[in-house]
Amino acid sequence: MSRAKGNKAEDLACGFLYDNGFEIVQRNFYSRFGEIDIITLKDGVLHFVEVKSGENYEVAIQNITKQKLSKLIKTGNVYMKKHSIDIDFVYDALIVTPCGIEFVENITL
């Protein structure tokens, strides 16, 4: 996927999150392990959100591999330590397709 398409999907995802009561804390946080697309806060819980887009849900969700999830978790740990944060947190996914946006909570289960 091109960076332009990725940015468009992330913009749509941010709008979706904002409309659903999430506060956008940061976008595109990088560490040596990888990137977190969107970091949000809602009801005292920090959400690390991975945005995936595709022609349909199945194509998009399959791009969240075991390796990608491992990098996401390591990067989340870096973020928490760097900012001295000690609150509840969760890793989520937002799947953006031509048919809409689907929020998948707690993808680490």
Strand content: 35-45%
Assign the CATH architecture.
3-Layer(aba) Sandwich
Low-pLDDT stretches: none
CATH fold node name: Trna Endonuclease, Chain: A, domain 1
Structural class: alpha+beta
Whole-angstrom Rg: 13 Å
Total number of domains: 1
**How many β-strand runs?**
5
Q: Which CATH class?
A: Alpha Beta
| Average pLDDT for all residues | 93
The helicity comes to 25-40%
Q: Largest sheet, if any?
A: 5 strands, mixed
- Order of strands, main sheet, comes to 1-2-3-4-5
| Multimerization status | single chain
Could you spell the SSE succession in H and E letters?
HEEEHHEE
State the helix count.
Answer: 3
Q: Kindly report how far apart the N and C termini lie.
A: 27 Å
Shape: globular
Describe what this molecule looks like in 3D.
The protein has 109 residues and is an alpha+beta fold. It has a single domain, classed as Trna Endonuclease, Chain: A, domain 1 (3-Layer(aba) Sandwich). It is 36% helix and 38% strand. It contains three helices and five strands; from the N terminus they run H-E-E-E-H-H-E-E. It has helices at 3-19, 57-61, 66-82, and strands at residues 23-31, 34-42, 45-53, 89-97, 100-104. A five-stranded mixed beta sheet has the order 1-2-3-4-5. A hairpin with a 2-residue loop joins strand 2 (34-42) and strand 3 (45-53). The model has no long low-confidence stretch (mean pLDDT 93).
